[in-house]
Design a protein that fits this description.
The chain is α+β, with helices and mostly antiparallel strands and 261 residues long. It has five helices and twelve strands. A hairpin with a 4-residue loop joins strand 10 and strand 11.
Length: 261
């Protein structure tokens, strides 16, 4: 198995896995649900005179992604406090505001500077004159298997495209014009067609259907998987993929031990 990095940013990563199967790619994708993420689990609303119901306000607060340092906290169920909630497994987030004002995630104060909203631009609610909100939220580690608020990332994969052009091709250029992403191009002085940036191809087959000579085929290669992971949490895409791989390895290790008995 070989891995090649294709694209990387602060919020997403795209890479190609060679000599693999879709079964492995899907297992890795599903293992992202086992990545531990910090999120608000409980909200105590002390005052709310806004037009937003308490339930809606609590729901919006719970879905705000939070940054955190992996390893700084343990799961509440595994903490020595026996799920009572301490500074080793929970973080307190507080907010008190008076209108008129637009209340954003950046207005939330935390007991730990490393645990804060991943984006301060998330609008929580709007307050009119004399309206007021005050709450105290408790954040803790969890996984997406428990609730969507602990979702670490959105992930997907596809087969890597493989282009074949037969001798029947007369270089009419129709396929190049029909490619909506402009990925096909003429090379070698207009004597050959190649797929530029193949990882951007979504296998729509527009080019293949438009060829009057039926000289072009493009299909997915099952042994080469292109995977895209976009973070929707406080973790970087690289941290998420690494944690998902570690979770998958741990599960396989448990299976191996069970089979020994």
């Amino acid at each position: 198995m070989k891995v090649k990095l294709l694209e990387k940013s602060d919020k997403s990563i795209r890479f190609e896995i060679k000599d693999t199967t879709s079964a492995f790619a899907n297992a890795l994708r599903r293992s992202i649900n086992d990545v531990k993420v910090m999120a608000v689990d409980f909200v105590e609303i002390k005052k709310n005179t806004s037009t937003m119901y308490n339930e809606t306000l609590a729901h919006r607060i719970g879905l705000i992604p939070l940054t955190f340092k992996p390893g700084d906290y343990v799961e509440t169920e595994k903490c020595k406090c026996e799920s009572a909630g301490c500074d080793k497994c929970t973080v307190k987030l507080v907010l008190k505001a008076m209108g008129p004002a637009s209340i954003y995630a950046s207005n939330i104060a935390s007991t730990d500077d490393s645990v804060k909203p991943a984006s301060g631009d998330i609008l929580i609610t709007k307050l009119a004159e004399d309206q007021e909100i005050e709450f105290e939220a408790t954040a803790r580690l969890g996984t997406a298997k428990k609730h969507a608020r602990w979702q670490a990332a959105i992930a997907g994969y596809q087969y890597a495209p493989k282009l074949k052009v037969t001798d029947a091709c007369d270089m009419c250029g129709v396929c190049i014009k029909k490619c909506q992403k402009k990925l096909l191009e003429e090379v070698k002085g207009g004597k050959k067609i190649e797929l530029n940036e193949p990882y951007k191809c979504d296998l729509c087959n527009n080019c293949m259907r438009s060829c009057p000579k039926m000289a072009l085929t493009i299909e997915g290669d099952p042994s080469r998987i292109i995977m895209n992971v976009e973070s929707v949490s406080g973790l970087s895409p690289k941290e998420i993929v690494a944690s998902a791989a570690e979770a998958l390895k741990e599960q396989l290790g448990e299976l191996r031990e069970e089979l020994k008995d």
